[in-house]
Amino acid sequence: MQTFKDRAKPNQHQRSVSLVNYDELRRRDTATPETEFRQRRPVLDTQASVDPTAPIDISTISSNKPEKCPLTGEYAEKATDLEKSALLSECLLTETAAVSEKRSAGEPLLLSAASCSTLPNHLQGDPTATSIIKGHRRSLSLRQRFEVGYEYIVSEFEHAREVAGKTVYHAGETVWKVCHFNHLPNWMQDNEYLHWGHRPPLPSLWACAKSIFRVHTETGNIWTHGIGALLFLALFIYTFVTMNAHKTATDRFMLIVYFCGIITCLLFSTLFHTFSCYASPKVIKIFSKLDYCGISLQIIGSMIPALYYGFYENFFMYKIYISFGVVLCILSIIVSMWDKFGEPKYRSLRAIVFLTFGLSNVIPGVHWYIILDSRLVTAFGMFILQGALYVIGSLLYANRIPERFFPGKCDYIFQSHQIFHVLVVVAALVHLNGINSMADFVLHLNSTSSAASAAATAATVAAANVVTPSPPVVSVP
Ligand SMILES: [Zn+2]
Question: Is the Cβ–Cβ distance between 443 and 228 less than 8 Å?
Fold first, then answer.
């Protein structure tokens, strides 16, 4: 229990008493009885001599001296409780505003006892009222000191946190270690059968980009499609450089469509797997949506040239099947834009959506088989093989085989997603082979028919020459 003497010391308790009383005075009910008001109010010890120019010395403040009522004498007789409270409130509010201005202007907050301008005119010169104001000013200064101190601590804390954040940021960029699946945040947990080797959330896209040179669960996924994208880019250039001069503009357009589809798909997939550890679920979702859109673009990019050459002599059916494919492509892209589409629990739905879209080619495939030229059986076989590779890859992906049977053993290699990626690249190569076979066949068909028509025309002309008698030569004697 603190004694009165103890409280006279400038200790923490005294400060808090002063602050508490100040708060109470600010929100004081004007109807509070004067006795209670006297007991709670901290006042300046008027017995002490005060140097008006000296900074505040908190040791001069004491509290709970009810015998030192500030409004004794003339004022105590005339003023009502309401007036006393109003007076104090007015002074305190004025003082608060003045201190706030000083603080915002960057001036020191210590008030000298001489700055007594806030005392209303009718109270100027009244020793008791002046002592009240001084006491409150000092109390207010303490509060302001406390606030400034608090703000200083907060700003130091913020600064320390900022420095710590930067340190962690740079450390996270350069010295991160792979972690266990259970240490990942929820929004990064995708495949619980891969135990170790996960990248932690990285603080920058640059750190994610650099992670492609580290070994972790996504390294295989990044490089299988990264190398695939480079391979198809090289094939694209090679195909156009060595292209048969007899190929038409439509042939070139079909190849461009195909290469754009597959390169976009592989590129978006590489980007997604590279940045899937970025410490922002929103950014990861954008990349995952791009990845799914890339799959849709790849499927439609494969369909367009295959259907064009398959129904080369039936343009009406080509338009029907292409319209069907475009509608499915748009639908799958719309579904891909759904925020939850990329969540682990919708893995099977994703496989179903893209398998349905891909397998929609079965209908035109059967139609094509019926009207198939026997010389295109090999090309047809290519498309069958390509479809089978996609289906196998999708089933492995959806069911997470083989890691499901070997949890923790496929963390870095032979996981279902890597197998799926490799099968996609192989299937795309097989598909390209099929398209090239069909394009060559159509080119051959066209050249044969044009040669045949030229021969027929020549034969017709020759026959006409035989039938038509040559005009008699008129000899001029
Ligand atoms: Zn992937």
Answer: no
